[in-house]
Amino acid sequence: MKQILYLTIVVVLFFSSCGVPYKQVPYFQDLKDSGNVQEQITNMAPLKIQKDDILAITVSSLNPEASAIFNMGNTTSANPNQVSNTSSINPAITANGFLVDQEGNIQLPLVGSVKVSGLTTTGARELVQQKLLTYLKEPVVSLRLVNFKVSVLGDVARPGVYPIQNERVSVPEALSLSGDLNITALRKNVLLVREYDGKRQFIRLDLNKKDLFNSPYYYLQNNDVLYVQPGNSKYASVDSSYRNIGLIVSVLSVIALVITRL
Predict the structure, then answer these.
(1) Between residues 83 and 1, which one has the greater pLDDT?
(2) In what order do the strands lie in the sheet with 98-99?
(3) Is 52 helix (H, G, I), strand (E, B) or coil?
(4) What φ, ψ does residue 133 adopt, rounded to 5°?
(5) What would the CATH number be for the domain defined by 54-145?
């Protein structure tokens, strides 16, 4: 009877050790769980235009016919065939907008090269509008980034590439798009990979700490990648050999214990 009791205890301890401690699961653990906590947002940086971005630019003026030539890079153009034909002539104008080339420029009809990399969309809009004063009377320009996307992979419910409709997305929002982290994910070691201005950064984020809200990396940029590392329990749940080794060790321990009692 004692031997059976020992075996039961060891098996229970083994399987309980394979689980994920609850204290590792909650986000932002050092945030007060009562009362109303407020703080100023100081880390919200406007999105900057980069090389290979695609800008949708819509132009209107007192002369709609004169404005039409500047709308050839948009799918919203009144003449879709015009977009296709123009794209085949000028690869800098895509079916969705104007491509920012490796020099950081877009190629506008009549205007030519316009340097937009490093600018916000507001700054680029004002610059384009200023350039168009030579050709149009009272031009009104609408400009937005149409290829803003983030990638989430690793131990999440739905890994994938997610397009962003506006110019702001935070780390928690991106993880929500992927269905949130699985229970086995390591929340203290989420890797952010960012490429900007010819450099690649690797940033470690801790989702258990509220400091994430004030991090300069809380808001994501275009083409950012979030990798969520799985924990040991994830590996144990899918690898039978790993589990069998642990069970064998536990059984051998029980046998050794029984032998010493004899």
Answers:
(1) 1
(2) 98-99, 54-60, 140-145
(3) coil
(4) -60, -25
(5) 3.30.1950.10
pLDDT(170) > 90: yes
- Per the CB < 8 A criterion, the answer to whether 20 and 67 are in contact is no
Give the domain 22-32+148-230 fold: Outer membrane lipoprotein wza fold like (3.10.560)
Which pLDDT score is estimated for 152? 97
Of residues 178 and 257, more confidence is placed in: 178
Q: In terms of C-beta density within 10 A (0-12 exposed, 13-18 middle, 19 or more buried), how is residue 29 classed?
A: middle
* Helices and strands (H, E) in the chain, number of each type: 7, 10
Tell me the C-alpha distance between 139 and 126, whole Å.
Answer: 11
What does pTM read for this prediction?
0.72
- Answer whether 68's CB lies under 8 Å from 110's CB: no
At residue 156 the predicted structure's pLDDT band, cuts being 50, 70 and 90, is very high
pLDDT of 3 above 90 = no
Topology alike, domains 22-32+148-230 and 54-145: no
Please report, for the chain, the start and end positions of each structural domain, with discontinuous segments joined by +.
2-20+236-261, 22-32+148-230, 54-145
